[in-house]
Write a structure and sequence with these properties.
The protein is an all-alpha fold. The chain has helices spanning 2-14, 22-36, 48-59, 65-84, 91-98, 100-110, 120-131, 142-154, 167-186, 190-205, 213-231, 233-236, 256-266, 273-295, 308-317, 321-328, 334-346, 356-368, 370-373, 377-387, 394-410, 412-422, 428-437, 441-458, 471-480, 485-495, 503-516, 520-525, 530-539, 542-556, 561-575, 584-598, 605-615, 617-622, 629-633, 638-648, 657-670, 678-695, 705-708. Helix 25 packs antiparallel against helix 26 (485-495).
């Protein structure tokens, strides 16, 4: 009766104030009297003093350390006695009325975060441990309490930095946390065990990415405890009221993939205790997954069961992430494997504290067996798209982009569909992924074919600002059809997709053309695009220009010399402004192509080429000292440079006085062209330009095209 009346009072506290009948008013009055006297609580007669301490603490404004410890100890003693004597009735109402969980959380949040001087943390967790034995007492409040415990204790300074720290206090505090976690799981109904462990693991994972070694170590230590619990749950479940224990096959943990991925990455912290704890946890989780797998085998397949102890010994002998992930692979669900892959992709971001090389090694394993690991293509593709923009390291980006290419080779339809769905219009990350896929011959053909079928109906949000403008659709139509030379040329002249002036799209189209042109047959067909490639140089987009030069060189190599001669002269003139470009890669491509074009001129085109080469003389000469080694190698070496100067001596005997004067100044200035002082080098360069400009219109019969060729 007393318990019923108290429930009425609690309900009244939560409900809006409304008029009540005389009978209800009488019951409420009686309930309030019972609240003042806790004798209605069955457990009160076991521990009356501790009940009074709890009530007094809650109502008192004074809460010094001694009172806090007595309050927490009284909770633990009361609940332990009630559980032992099976007198737990009403404890849920008692906790609710006096807000025990809320008061414990406040105490934890008030504790200092820079030192561990008192036993408040330890006493609070012991109290929570005892409370977990009573059903519904902590229901809905565990997450908040655990978050307060983890945030407070994990973020404490390292043991070595805490002054006057008592080792026993630290040890018992951490032990108290482990005991609390085990109790919270074991005292949960079987139906909620998965949910409870999932929530705790999820909270712990957030601390494993900390830059502080002590935080990682404390979090991984608790993960090890829970992993042991998971591996041995069937034999540890202690609730006598449960009709049966949950079997391993029923213990489904959706977070297991994320958990394994993080633990594998934590192995790289070998200089810390973290790495050893992570390995222990991995071996325990391997035991769980191995036995779970064996539990699903039919009687006919029982002979396939091995010895998990032998397997775990192998893991400890060779504790590398690549070896462990290969050992786990066959025992994991597809979703778990996909989650592991996602964890390693996210580990590549610049902000990640994990070892990038270890992550790349695991992704190499994944790419080596795409049928096993790259199962959930939409999920992994979305992860790559979300993550790539946060990766600036070139090796890391290449590793993730290579993974994308592997998926595109395996499942082009799913990759294309997902990217078109998740990428907004003009998305730079998606464009980078398309470009990576367009860099591989077989992949680009498969992707273009798939794009053709999908974009034709979708009216792409990604590639077009105008729905009628389909650059890649046109390219895909051209590349996907088996057209002869004439049909190819006619089709391109209808499309002219290289007239696209948006830098990102033009660069992407050129990337695809670069790859497609690697096939000699396709390169020969592409001679029709040469005029448009030259116009690309006029747009001034450096990335697109660099690609256009490479495509031009590939196509020109497939032409007969007589056919290429006139085009070579035209292109050489287009290249002149690029020979001295500020971008080293563009300079290298320009000079390399310029060298090839000089050798292609025949017949009357030689004279025109000679005039163009003269205009490029000065930038070529100065690039002999280019700090970019690949650029300098494309020019003459020091010996050739000296020959170049010696050849200039012929101008000293020229009939024209202006040329003789220019030659003297030019040759004299070359001794200062590599002066240590930047100001001198700059002045020399300016002077040489003036000299050559003043005499550019004069004929120079003694210069020969052969003398300018780089051999």
């Amino acid at each position: 009766m007393a318990e019923k009346l108290l429930r009425v009072a609690l309900k009244e506290d939560r409900a809006p104030q409304e008029s009540s009948s005389p009978v209800e008013s009488h019951e409420l009055c009686l309930a309030q009297q019972l609240e003042m006297d806790a004798s209605w609580l069955p457990a009160y007669h076991l521990e009356p003093e501790h009940v009074d301490v709890i009530r007094a603490f809650v109502s008192s404004p004074e809460k010094d350390e001694e009172r806090k410890l007595k309050f927490l100890t009284s909770i633990a003693v009361l609940f332990r006695a009630a559980t032992y004597n099976s007198l737990c009735q009403g404890l849920d109402l008692f906790c609710q009325r006096y807000k025990l969980a809320e008061n414990i959380k406040v105490l934890l949040e008030e504790e200092p975060r820079d030192q561990l001087h008192t036993a408040v943390w330890r006493s609070a967790m012991f109290a929570m441990t005892e409370m977990s034995f009573v059903e519904a007492v902590l229901e809905g409040k565990e997450i908040g309490l655990l978050q307060a415990c983890f945030s407070g204790i994990f973020l404490l300074p390292p043991k070595e930095e805490m002054q006057d720290l008592k080792p026993f206090l630290y040890f018992t505090t951490m032990k108290g946390m482990d005991t609390m976690l085990v109790a919270l799981v074991l005292n949960s109904p079987t139906s909620r065990v998965n949910e409870k462990m999932q929530s705790i693991f999820q909270m712990l994972l957030t601390f494993t990415t900390s830059e502080r070694a002590s935080v990682r170590e404390r979090a991984v230590g608790r993960m090890r405890v829970l992993s042991f619990l998971l591996a041995n749950y069937s034999s540890l479940k202690a609730d006598p009221n449960e009709e049966r224990h949950a079997s391993r096959a029923e213990m489904q943990m959706p977070i297991i993939g994320q958990l394994l991925g993080h633990l594998l990455l934590l192995l790289s912290f070998k200089e810390e205790e973290t790495g050893h704890l992570a390995l222990d946890a991995l071996c325990l989780l391997f035991q769980f997954k191995y036995q779970q797998h064996c539990a699903t085998l039919t009687e006919e397949n029982t002979q396939l069961q091995g010895d998990w102890e032998t397997e775990t010994t192998s893991l400890r002998t060779s504790p590398s992430a690549t070896h462990i992930i290969e050992s786990f692979a066959e025992y994991l669900q597809p979703s778990e494997r996909s989650d592991i892959v996602r964890v390693f992709i996210e580990a590549m971001t610049d902000s990640s504290t994990f070892d990038k090389e270890a992550a790349r090694n695991v992704l190499d394993v994944v790419r080596g067996n795409p049928d096993l690991w790259l199962v959930d293509v939409p999920k992994i593709t979305s992860c790559i798209h979300k993550t790539l923009g946060c990766i600036k390291s070139v090796p890391a980006r290449q590793s993730v982009e290579s993974l994308m290419v592997s998926m595109a080779d395996k499942c082009p339809q799913e990759v294309v569909t997902t990217l078109l769905q998740v990428a907004p219009g003009g998305d730079s990350t998606a464009l980078a992924l398309w470009e990576a896929m367009f860099s591989v011959p077989q992949t680009v053909r498969n992707i273009l074919k798939e794009l053709l079928s999908q974009l034709w109906d979708l009216k792409s949000r990604l590639f077009c600002t105008h729905l009628e403008d389909y650059c890649l659709v046109r390219l895909a139509m051209l590349a996907s059809r088996d057209l002869g030379d004439r049909a190819f040329a006619a089709t391109y002249l209808d499309f002219r997709f290289l007239k696209e002036e948006r830098p990102a799209m033009l660069s992407l189209v050129l990337r695809a053309i670069m790859t497609l042109s690697e096939r000699d047959e396709m390169a020969r067909k592409m001679k029709v695009i040469l005029p448009d490639l030259m116009r690309v140089l006029l747009f001034g987009y450096k990335a697109a220009t660099t690609k256009a030069l490479l495509v031009f060189r590939t196509i020109m190599a497939q032409l007969e010399r007589r056919e290429a001669s006139h085009i070579a002269v035209q292109m050489a003139e287009f290249l002149l402004p690029l020979l001295d470009d500020e971008l080293s890669q563009l300079r290298e491509s320009s000079i390399s192509l310029f060298r090839d074009l000089m050798m292609m001129a025949v017949g009357n085109d030689k004279r025109e080429m000679k005039n163009v080469v003269r205009l490029g003389l000065l930038p070529l000469f100065f690039r002999l000292s280019d700090q970019t080694q690949s650029v300098a190698k494309l020019k003459q070496d020091r010996r050739r440079a000296q020959e170049f100067l010696i050849q200039s001596l012929s101008y000293l005997k020229d009939a024209q006085a202006s040329l003789r004067e220019a030659a003297v100044r030019f040759i004299a200035l070359q001794t200062l062209a590599e002066d240590r002082e930047p100001s001198i080098r700059s002045l020399v360069a300016q002077t040489v330009i003036i000299i050559l400009s003043s005499s550019r219109e004069q004929p120079r019969p003694r210069w020969t095209l052969r003398a300018l060729c780089c051999r």
